[in-house]
């Protein structure tokens, strides 16, 4: 929702179909991991007026750099019935609405889990609601950075009749003296204007991910290896909420006669909450907000009226629910077919920590209740932040994200009080619970059978993997190929781990200025994007034997972008020679 978005109009069309596959795999509504994390700040909008200790009104017209038609006024934002209400009004060809932010000395934070419960109005056509963040360091746009958590009302959705279903997320930043942007959208199976829905952002030092009702919208790699110039996303941010009317950018309606949305139009925000995700730092709270400190497994939350202390930990042997972590990185929770919640959305490098457990100096069988659609995941038990790590277990395919089996191992733990950790060397699995029992057997249990062996025997469940069909272009085993359109060719080089992939444009202007490589190991998955340069080899992170699926999104000379999401390429790491 940034100002002066010179190139954004076409870019927001990028890959509208990307998320439809996820509906099949992740149809369940997911409650985020914030349910058990420390609350840093929230506005529940339970008062009778906007809390101006936290929120600043931005007022006036002039288009706001996007040719918007409305004037922002203080009177168009109210608090009533436990919600912030932004009302867009129309009087002939004149429109008013509201825009608020928590910046300029109010609430700011760096990294965290953000959750907002929002109900949109009927957007058809011309309304542009947004919940977004702006970098708090005043370097000017886009050098200060921008993260769009929720934007709706864009032209492509208007054109295809999904304007009340399609939500988008994006990042904007300065790149080599110019402007860079990466965004994706997701189209929900039904209209979003009939009820409240939850938008979530998980922001860590390596990845920004957004979700609608637990379904992933967008994931963006901000690690130094992926893009060394992304310092914009490693600084404090503040929030903005607004509802624009029209604009040459995004909505692409500048004639008031073409604004057909019903007025008055009301955007309801039930709450905005920010949770500590173990990376959260540089928090500046505002009046009436919440500050949180965490130490030694005990979390103390202080508000203006109360202090609550919640201690983790206990004594082994014990069963530990996976969602009862005291800190985590990257994961979320969802409703579990076996009751309660399970931890899901586990990617490589994610972890959960359970602070303050008396481990008893004994030998235990540790059983893990896991599920995985495709297998290939790995799980590792740790103590004290990884200072002690135990044997990695492979997580086999169980045939579904809610098809549960139990795998186990024997470990000997030291005496004393320790933090227990579960680490994911490889992702793609869910965890419901894990249990420490005295003694030493290793078991694999499905719903129908139980097999027990000696503690020294490695046992795993039967793995059945069905790979999705992918299109591999040319080049033997996929080491060379290209787009069916002829827009580009590619070349993979590397006989060992971490090979390089090179994007070679097929014509002048292809990939200028933008080429995004998206890759992963799940043929039907959604992958983070990495900015690469045309004709320059880009080294990926992958192990020998892994099958890598990838595609590109890239600029075209006539404007806008194309992508090969529907025609992915693939190759097996270690088979492409040259290194």
What's a quick, concise take on this entry?
3% of the residues lie in helices and 46% in strands.
Task: Walk me through this protein's architecture.
This protein is mainly beta. Mean pLDDT is 80; it is low at 3-33, 288-311 and 441-476.
Structural class: mainly beta
Question: Sheet with the most strands?
Answer: 10 strands, mixed
Fraction of helical residues: under 10%
Overall pLDDT score? 80
**How much is the radius of gyration in Å?**
25 Å
Work out the number of β strands: 46
What percent strand?
Answer: over 45%
What global shape is seen?
globular
N- to C-terminal distance: 45 Å
Note the total helix count: 4
Low-confidence stretches: 3-33, 288-311, 441-476
Element layout with pairings:
Blueprint lengths: L7 H4 L8 H6 L13 E5 L12 E2 L12 E3 L4 E4 L2 E9 L2 E4 L1 E3 L6 E3 L1 E8 L7 E9 L10 E7 L2 H5 L6 E10 L2 E10 L9 E7 L3 E6 L2 E7 L15 E9 L19 E11 L5 E4 L6 E5 L2 E5 L4 E5 L2 E2 L2 E4 L5 E3 L2 E4 L5 E4 L6 E8 L4 E10 L4 E7 L4 E2 L3 E3 L4 E13 L4 E10 L3 E9 L3 E4 L4 E4 L21 H4 L1 E3 L5 E6 L6 E6 L9 E6 L8 E3 L6 E2 L7 E9 L5 E3 L5 E4 L7
Notable features of this structure?
disordered N terminus; 4 helices; 579 residues
């Amino acid at each position: 929702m940034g100002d002066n978005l010179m190139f954004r109009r076409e870019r927001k069309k990028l890959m509208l179909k990307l998320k439809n596959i996820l509906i099949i795999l992740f149809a369940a509504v997911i409650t985020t991991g914030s349910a058990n994390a420390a609350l840093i700040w929230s506005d529940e909008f339970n008062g009778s007026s906007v809390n101006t200790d936290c929120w600043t009104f931005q007022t006036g017209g002039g288009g706001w750099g996007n040719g918007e038609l409305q004037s922002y006024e203080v009177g168009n934002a109210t608090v009533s019935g436990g919600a912030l209400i932004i009302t867009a009004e129309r009087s002939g060809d004149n429109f008013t609405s509201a825009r608020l932010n928590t910046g300029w000395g109010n609430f700011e934070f760096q990294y965290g889990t953000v959750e907002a419960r929002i109900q949109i109005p009927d957007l058809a056509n011309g309304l542009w609601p947004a919940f977004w963040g702006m970098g708090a360091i005043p370097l000017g746009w886009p050098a200060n950075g921008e993260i769009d958590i929720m934007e709706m009302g864009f032209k492509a959705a208007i054109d295809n009749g999904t304007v009340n279903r399609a939500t988008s997320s994006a990042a904007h930043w300065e790149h080599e003296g110019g402007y860079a942007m990466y965004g994706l959208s997701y189209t929900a199976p039904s209209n979003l204007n009939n009820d409240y829905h939850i938008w979530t952002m998980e922001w860590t030092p390596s990845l920004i991910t957004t979700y609608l009702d637990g379904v992933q919208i967008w994931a963006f790699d901000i690690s130094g290896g992926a893009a060394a110039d992304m310092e914009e996303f490693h600084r404090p941010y503040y929030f903005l909420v607004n509802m624009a009317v029209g604009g040459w950018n995004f909505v692409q309606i500048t004639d008031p006669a073409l604004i057909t949305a019903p007025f008055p139009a009301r955007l309801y925000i039930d709450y905005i909450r920010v949770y500590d995700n173990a990376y959260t730092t540089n928090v500046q709270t505002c009046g009436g907000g919440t500050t949180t400190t965490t130490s030694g497994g005990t979390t103390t939350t202080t508000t203006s009226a109360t202090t609550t202390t919640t201690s983790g930990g206990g004594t082994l042997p014990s069963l530990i629910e996976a969602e009862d972590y005291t800190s985590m990185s990257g994961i979320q929770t969802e409703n579990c077919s076996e009751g309660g919640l399970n931890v899901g959305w586990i990617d490589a490098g994610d972890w959960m920590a359970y602070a303050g457990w008396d481990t008893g100096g004994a030998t235990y069988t540790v059983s893990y209740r896991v599920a995985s659609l495709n297998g290939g995941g790995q799980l590792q038990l740790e103590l004290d932040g990884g200072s002690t790590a135990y044997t990695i277990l492979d997580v086999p395919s169980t045939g579904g994200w809610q098809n549960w089996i139990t795998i186990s191992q024997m470990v000997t733990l030291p005496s004393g009080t320790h933090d227990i950790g579960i680490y994911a060397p490889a992702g793609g699995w869910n965890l419901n619970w894990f249990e420490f029992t005295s003694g030493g057997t290793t078991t694999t249990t499905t719903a129908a059978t139980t097999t027990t062996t000696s503690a020294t025997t490695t046992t795993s469940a039967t793995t059945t993997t069905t790979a999705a069909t992918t299109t591999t272009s040319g080049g033997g085993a996929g080491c060379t190929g290209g787009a069916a359109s002829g827009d580009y060719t590619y070349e993979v080089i590397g006989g060992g781990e971490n090979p390089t992939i090179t994007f070679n444009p097929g014509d002048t202007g292809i990939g200028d200025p933008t080429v995004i490589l998206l890759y992963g190991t799940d043929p039907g998955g959604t992958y983070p994007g990495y900015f690469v340069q045309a004709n320059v080899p880009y080294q990926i992170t992958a192990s020998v034997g892994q099958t890598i699926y990838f595609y590109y999104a890239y600029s075209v000379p006539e404007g806008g972008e194309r992508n090969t999401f529907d025609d992915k390429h693939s190759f097996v790491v270690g088979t492409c020679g040259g290194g």
